Amino acid sequence: MSGTESEKRPASPESAVVLLSGGMDSTTLLHYVVRRLAVGKVYALSFLYGQKHRRELEAAAWQARAAGVIAHDVVDMSFFGALTPGGSTLTDQALDVPRLADLGAAQLSQPPTYVPNRNMILLSLAAAYAEARGVADIYYGAQAQDRYGYWDCTAGFLDRINAVLALNRRIPVRVQAPFVAWRKAEELRLGRDLGVDYAHTWTCYRGESAPCGNCPACVERAAAFREAGWPDPLLRVCFTKGRTGRITAGPGGAYGGVVPETERTLSRT
Fold first, then answer.
1. Could you tell me the residue range of the domain that residue 80 belongs to?
2. CA-CA distance, 80 to 266, in Å (whole number)?
3. Is residue 167 part of a domain?
4. Alpha helices in 117-183 (DSSP H)
5. Rounded to the nearest 10 degrees, how much is the dihedral formed by the CA atoms of 60, 184, 138, 162?
6. Which of 130, 134, 240, 261 is most buried, by CB atoms within 10 Å?
7. Mean pLDDT throughout 157-181?
8. At 149, which CATH number?
9. Is residue 84 part of a domain?
10. Which of 252, 225, 231 is CA-nearest to residue 241?
């Protein structure tokens, strides 16, 4: 064994960092890590990357509390949209989120909802966050989209980013993506077994009072629930006014505008 290899410090196998957007994939993953893998110390990490709404982040805060993570940190990189003008319909206010039905076949391999290099940036920040805490494993909810795809949610991307992280001479962090080859209906069936409350998730690319039903994310979510064989609880909740503790139509979202105590925002001052 070389001197460099002998000096590497093993990170704790009893801890993990989970990238938590508040969507269906990352929420299922969070509860999988906590309940199925029984990891004792789980850190949830979310990002403000210039997206047009906070609906997912509200759901992420709820799910972090439900899972009992030891910390839920939100990284403020809201400058990212201004840094990448025209790069994505999710971050550029001048661009409309498309309907999936309006996308041509050539667009489905990388639709206009793709955010330039987002996952590599988020995973790089997560790797620094994990390394500083002695955590060996980062989990992110890459999933083989059923109707469209992103290059930074593929097995090839996962292999390459792990090859880079393995160069670390002290604490080699590894990215895990257990759903990278799964379909969404498979995730839902796992989530049902784990007791995940999907009423407290947000998938729609538009941050309105209820899911739009026609953006790429909404279409795939609806198809997954149909295939899994049960109704989407979020739809029932969104159209039930004033139900306490639920995501309801209105400006306050899930928490009436109150940020839970477990959510901390990390930003440059």
1. 3-197
2. 15
3. yes
4. 118-132, 155-165
5. -150
6. 130
7. 95
8. 3.40.50.620
9. yes
10. 252
